[in-house]
Amino acid sequence: MTGGAPPAPPALTRNFRPVGGDILWGGGGAGGPRTCALTGRRGGQRKRRGNVRGGERRCQEEGAGGRRAGRRFCGYREREAPLGGEGGRRGEPKSREPGAAVTAPQFPIMAGAGPSGRDKRTTAAQLKAALGGESGAAAAGELRALLERVLSPAAGPGGGGEAAAEALEWCRCLLSGGEPWDSFVQAVRAYDPATLCGLVWTANFVAYRCRTCGISPCMSLCAECFHQGEHAGHDYNMFRSQAGGACDCGDSNVMREAGFCKRHRIKSKSNVPCVPKDLLMMSELVLPQFIFSLIQHLREGYNEPALDLPSEKDLHKILQVLEPHVSFLEDLTKMGGAMRSVLTQVLTSQQFYKDLSSGVGENACAKKSHEKYLVALKGSGLAFPEDKIACGIQEQGAGTSTLAVQGLAGATATSGQGDSSDEEDQDGSQGVGKRKRVKLSSTTKDQSIMDVLKHKCFLEELLFWTIKYEFPQKMVTFLLNMLPDQDYKIAFTKTFVQHYAFIMKTLKKSHESDTMSNRIVHISVQLFSNEELARQVTEECQLLDIMVTVLLYMMESCLIKSELQDEENSLHVVVNCGEALLKNNTYWPLVSDFINILSHQSVAKKFLEDHGLLVTWMNFVSFFQGMNLNKRELNEHVEFESQTYYAAFAAELEACAQPMWGLLSHCKVRETQEYTRNVVRYCLEALQDWFDAINFVDEPAPNQVTFHLPLHRYFAMFLSKAVKCQELDLDTILPDQEMLMKLMIHPLQIQASLSEIHSNMWVRNGLQIKGQAMTYVQSHFCNSMIDPDIYLLQVCASRLDPDYFISSVFERFKVVDLLTMASQHQNTVLDSEHERSMLEGALTFLVLLLSLRLHLGMTDDEILRAEMVAQLCMNDRTHSSLLDLIPENPNPKSGIIPGSLSFESVLSAVADFKAPVFEPGGSMQQGMYTPKAEVWDKEFDPVMVILRTVYRRDVQSAMDRYTAFLKQSGKFPGNPWPPYKKRTALHPSYKGLIKLLHCKTLHIVLFTLLYKILMDHQNLSEHVLCMVLYLIELGLENSPEQEADEEESAGGQERCHDSWFPGSNLVSNMRHFINYVRVRVPETAPEVKREPPASTSSEGLASSQSSRRKNLQRENSGTAQVFSLVAERRKKFQEIINRNTSEANQVVRPKTSMKWSAPGATPQLTTAILEVKESILSLLIKLHHKLSGKQNSYYPPWLDDVDVLTHPEIPRYSHGDGMTAVERILLKAAIQSRLNKRIIEEICRKVTPPVPPKKISSAEKKTLDKEERRQKARERQQKLLAEFASRQKSFMETAMDVESPDADIAMEVATSEQHVSEAIYDCVICGQSGPSTEDRPTGLVVLLQASSVLGQCRNSTEPKKLPTTEEEQIYPWDTCAALHDVRLTTLQRYFKDSSCLQAVSIGWEGGVYVQTCGHTLHIDCHKSYMESLRNDQVLQGFSVDKGEFTCPLCRQFANSVLPCYPGNNTERSLWQSHSNKCMQDLVQEVEDLQEQLGTFPVSISSETNLSKEMESVMKDIKSTTQKKYTDYSKSPGSPDNDFLFMYSVARTNLELELVHRGGNLCSGGASTAGKRSCLNQLFHVLAMHMRLYSIDSAYNPWRKLTQPMQDKNSEPISEELPEVPMLYRDVSSLLLIQILTMPQPLHKEHFTCIIKVLFTLLYTQALAALSVKCSAEDRMAWKESGALKKNTSSGEKSWEVLLGHVISELSKGKIYKEGETEELTVVNPDSIECYLQQFCLPFLRITSLLQHHLFGGDLPSCQEDEEFTVLASCLGLLPSFQSAHQFTSASCLDWPVPAFDMVSQWCSELASFADRHPDQVKALLIQEPKWDLPRLLQLPENYNTIFQYYHRKTCTVCTKVPKDPAVCLVCGTFVCLKGLCCKQQSYCECVLHSQNCGAGTGIFLLINASVIIIIRGHRFCLWGSVYLDAHGEEDRDLRRGKPLYICKERYKVLEQQWVSHTFDHINKRWGPHYNGL
């Protein structure tokens, strides 16, 4: 992390990996650098270890959580070597155990090797019977012998899986006594009295936590119990378990009974029958041996790891072999309470253990395993013998307790595999750097922890091996599954505690400490969360002693000498944050257990009462005091930036602060005063030891800082608690003054260092130092770090001498030298560029110190409110980020829990909710909270904001928002200053703090600064003035008692001549005039020239020279006063020291000047006397004039309005700038004292002398120049912008036709003059305008994309739902694409291929959609643009090789250029002139035009640039979609395919435009995309290509439409398939074929002619379809009525006549023979008319759109019911527009030849087909097409519905539960995201599905993340989530696990983007997916 931006807040830097939903203490893989997330998320997210809120049962385990195991136990199955690595030991003779009765085998099977299953069962049954009978003893012997043979380690696992399976088979038979196993299991389950659920789960399980029902904060429920319980309206969340856990349903210790689920609510103990004796008789005999054999195997398999080789492989192997055995035990536990109690009895019985393991004697095999066991036991205690010798020598040298050293060495030896050199150094240093350490042995009452473990029962040894093998998951689960048994729980907990030290040692050595940590916590959290149990173990097993001792031992292994303060002689040791133990957080399982048990009151009380424990604990805490010391780099930039600070902050928070908060939560009432006294006492002792150890006297070492002072913070927090809750008198527990002086030094050093870091004085230390400064104030740390520090400083300030304190502050901040009246000064400790920000820092710190009341009297609710207001003022916040940013009291049992009632009520009081909105750009906002107006008005507190900002820019952001509020509400127009906010009253104990405001030192500083600001000295800023005024105002607000207003006499003046100010009260000091000041200045300073007034005595001069290196000195004459801050401070310190210590040797060390300046660098100082003659009041008034820029601008308000003095709270003063602040202060000063009032009036009366003319210094000159330059730059910019705007406007007018509603067709400039024939285009690259020519064509920027949106239309208005149960499945049969597909296939079966391919359109799936942004460019310019993109190395979000680019002007995504046809505008005028030619002539003309195929205006033969471009764009269009969507002919590669594809592209684009308009043309107007439509250009390109294919005139459909074929029937039917009958052809397709094969430009009259002809065909199709739907009787009726009217004049234009004719014609074939089809409900003329209109409408819509694009002209708008008539007349089908009521659709018909002949001909084709294939006739008739608009699937209201169904669902392809399941929102298919299991030809399943379902566009909902991901071709992007929680927030990755609800608006936006194909334009963050999704 060197260089670059400042680090992110520590939470996110480096490799913090969010896993599940937590920010984790993740790491860089197995051995990489580990870091810890310092943020521990909160609420459902906060699964930090030990932070008991999040995660599983105890969220500790959660946090563990994120630490994913790098290498889980992945079975190492290399060679199945026999166990233990020895040769085959299988044949060894086995001797019986002494106890076994050696009788002859009673049962025949004993001899046989492996009896079959039935034999086993009979044997078992016989044994069971015998055991019940008289020969019980003999049978028992038999059984034992049998078991010994079956289970022997030799026969067992070593012999591979068969033997193991065999053994288990035997056990099952024996246990069930020969019964079938299943029925035995049922029988046992019947006796299950358990009321607990106790389901144990491992990592990644999804569980729930309900805070409303939980007693313990880590209660958790399995999904089943949660859904069966009643938690509606509760505060619950779902979480993904990190370390595993167990369900607490039914356990009333952990949760309230109201939350139990239905199954566990019944107290069933009473009604469970007693278990019959013989049911479990066999179990009691078999299980001991079974468990013993398991232990034997574990012993066998264990080899002490050699030092060089970790034996993990062997361990894994053993574990794998034993897996079935452990699973068998696990199955037994699941049989319920009855079986569990047998197991408990076996596991805890000492007798069984003794009997079985004592018989080791003569059995060699068993003997060997026993020896291994003894070896393994060595080193299980904390101390062990071989170290005593090793440490002997050292012990004498150090003179420390044996045990302490031993522990160190012991720990060292055990971790010996590591780097031994490192360890030796450490040991060496130990002797030097050890300070006196408490004897550990004295704290440990229970010696057992030191010694080797002794095991008395199976359970103990089983746990021992579980630890040795590093907690295999199976074993852990088995041990936990037993917990519902109460006896077991107690025994197990005690055993666990007994092994605690051993666990720590194993954990430290482990290579997989992460995995192991998770497993440890998985267990411990189940045990220690139960208060009753924890108390019992604490009393009986010294749990607290053990824990503290173990922690101490653990940390002792990584101590180093502290370099703080006195590097050479320091005796203090601290933990080394670079050690793996800290870096990897290895300690956290132990710490989190400790925190867990301290949350129980009874345990915490024991801890607080036990003095020995407290001493040890403080000793432990002191290891962290001063760790991770930073030394300021002064020369070079540091080479390597250490990242140890992560470990340091985590360690202090986890190991020190969390236990502290735990203890504090039990010190809430008066009765607990004693505890506080204890803690404070031992804390102070530890602090005193620490000061001694680091040789601290009175000055901190320069250029060093540590942020870690846990002892100070313990002290501070217990003090705060004592005053706030326990009503203790503060002074009774505070130490003496000297100690307080020492205590304040280091916290003050941190505050000064923060200021230095922000002033860039530590910049050579790299970015990590900024990271530390940010972490220190960051929300998860601030209340354990900066808050206690500031509180401690407040306490010290309230008890120490105020002058001493103030001068200390300025000295720490290194700005003493700046505080001089002289205009120049020399600062020996600070570069001048840092002076200003350090001065600001010092003043800001004083303001914080004096204003904050967090621990000084605010209630919890007030604090919460202040914190919330501060966060909201910086920025609007989402609910979850507020929860996260507000520092909660880290202890779970404290009052304010995020999400608690107080949080919500405060939130609603201070903030308004802004619902999530959509910005037109498509970016989606979350629901935000924003401060209410009255909060800005009354509660905005800049001090709190400064305290809580991690980044300085947040303060600015808050001020900007405040300014905006004032402007908006009209309260203040200018730039306001931070408002002054009234503070909560101080608690009486801290009243002393006010003294700081009323001490002379501060007043001198304030006076000096006001003077300097007025005189324009350098290095002072508005911020400084602001803080100075703030401090003055604080002083006036908090003045002591009202001073007596005695008239000041001359004598008074005399009396106080010896110092600057007469008293210490600010109110009176404000009016005190100071006449002369003597200053020390460099000889060059302007002040030197002045002669001192005569009255100055020369002694004064002499004495001042002798005073110490300070420039403000004081003197005993009335003229010049001089003051030395540091001298004062020294004097005070000396007094206190002398008063406190009798020893003479406690002298203050002489102050070395070396720290301040190098010798010789001191400039020559000389003394000058400065005439001042000002008081604070006069300075303020002059400042007011200066700020306002006017003379005499201040006029005392009370002269006009006396009320001002009685009602000072005037709103006009509450907001404003510096002038307002000055006015407010003067008013307050006048109110507090009459004298002040009078003096203010006097000063105002004197005409103010003019402010001295400004001498412009070079620095100011610079700033002035800068201003001027800026002004000029601004003007230049304005000019440029204006120019750009005008260009843009003209461009918009030409290209987009923005204003003109009657715009002509897109892209063509609509000019009123008709004679402009050529369209003019602007090239957005070269900026030239001109027509598109053949040689230099212009093109439109277009995006081609394949689309299957049209294919998703369904013919039902009911939207499909996303399936959320097995019953609801979606079948794609009713989609538009599917039906079109079926139709084409059927046609191809019966008719000639080439004619089929002209009878339909394709492109419903995988059609190519063309869209443009409307910008044009020269095609040659585009080529060079692409070339430059290709050479551009910058990473683009698109692939230039695939031809992708962004429009150079508007940056819209595009991938091709569509050439503009060099057309003139003649067609525009052509179509206005109505032609009078008759229909017949036009028909003939059309036919002739179709014949002249060669006459294409651009001759193809001459390869022009234009035709080349047209070809290349055609290639692009083809390659946009997949081959399967273009190849439909039976003979591949036939030209018919291309022909079909080309006109279908036109069809796709028209249909999609129709969809975008909502499926009809009622709205009229130019299309939504009309201004940007490229259909005209597209038509030219398609037409040019279509005309390359000639249609054989014999097959030309035009002929069939316009001429009756007489001779067709006489021809014999040829062999090949017939052509498709006209009535089966799709009319819209015919239209496009006709239009595109005509020479361009087309004449309007020809277009109309084609439409009229096609309409006749369409109408006939409608009648045919109708006739099929009628019943036979209706048909007869229509036929007859039609025949009657046939000969009337309008017969050809009456549907009745025509319908009758169609019916009679069709009746000739076998069309109506089949059974009746569905009928029209009412067959009356109106419904028929309606049906016919609906049938024809789709065609009319497409045609109208086409006409609009080809010939311009707007579409008329209309009501839905008159759409047909309007479109018909617009198309010229209606001769004259008739009134609506008499209108019939038939009146649009215009037959080119006699109607009845045409109809008969078309019907006869059908009839002849019917003769051959009667079954298909009706199916192929074109039906009334009623498609609903394309929609995405409808989603359920609640996300949980989706989650519960899909997250456990198995994938249909690979039948596994996918790791990342996803579901397609278009068709509902369930897919594996990134699943390698379902990969096909290198495409992962989602990518593959996006190609099949959406032709390259896929919309998937990721089940585990609630996010939607879009795949578009080769790119993908995260779209966002359509599910939001109650606060309008997304919950990506379900981190918070709150209930989520559908956001309909968002889903609409998603659907809209899908239908309009605008994903590419609206979503900005695209990346390539490399087919891996």
Structural write-up:
This protein is an alpha+beta fold. The relative contact order is 0.05. 47% of the residues lie in helices and 6% in strands.
* Apparent shape: flat
Number of beta strands? 31
Largest sheet: 6 strands, antiparallel
Helix/sheet category:
alpha+beta
Question: Given the structure, what is the number of helices?
Answer: 73
Average pLDDT across residues? 76
Neighbour order of strands in the largest sheet: 25-24-26-27-28-31
Low-confidence stretches: 1-115, 155-159, 384-446, 891-899, 1043-1058, 1089-1121, 1141-1162, 1250-1257, 1295-1316, 1465-1473, 1494-1501, 1607-1612
Distance between the termini: 31 Å
Helical fraction: 40-55%
Q: In what range is the share of β-strand residues?
A: 5-15%
Radius of gyration: 46 Å
